[in-house]
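Lecture notes, part 5. Sequence design as translation. It can be helpful to think of inverse folding as translation between two languages: the language of shapes and the language of residues. The source text, in structure tokens, appears below.
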């Protein structure tokens, strides 16, 4: 996987996995603009975007992590995971939080593989479409 700097257009270029399709719509342009102002990267395989990911600082020491994964990302999860871990390791934030779809088992498994711990099992109506999420956090000692 080739890693490159994130560009707002990448969020419109990526073919999202079905579990994240709810992210498409009116908020995509705003999300892309916000993401482009903070640390983020894009991963490509054979020219196709397989992941866009980054962190958005909330305040000093705390950030929200995010990742949009492509429909074919499953084939490249080892490379995607390694890239995200390297990315997290160079971030200055002591605490990074992520939210995952409450009913998406693979997202929960990936969060744990990345070293995140479950803090809130259910955040009701958290997603743009009203779906529920779980909150994970990764805190450095």
């Amino acid at each position: 996987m080739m890693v490159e700097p994130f560009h707002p257009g990448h969020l419109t270029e990526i073919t999202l996995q079905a579990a994240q399709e709810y992210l498409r719509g009116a908020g995509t342009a705003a999300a892309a603009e916000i993401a482009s102002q903070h640390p983020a990267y894009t991963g490509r395989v054979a020219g196709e975007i397989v992941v866009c990911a980054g962190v958005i600082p909330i305040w000093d020491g705390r950030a929200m992590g995010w990742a949009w994964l492509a429909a074919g990302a499953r084939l490249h999860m080892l490379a995607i995971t390694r890239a995200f871990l390297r990315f997290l390791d160079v971030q200055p934030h002591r605490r990074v939080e992520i939210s995952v779809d409450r009913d998406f088992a693979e997202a929960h498994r990936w969060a744990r593989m990345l070293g995140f711990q479950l803090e809130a099992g259910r955040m009701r109506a958290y997603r743009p479409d009203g779906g529920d999420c779980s909150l994970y956090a990764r805190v450095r000692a």
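The translated text above is only one of many valid answers, since several sequences can fold into similar shapes. Residues 77-89 form the longest helix (13 residues).
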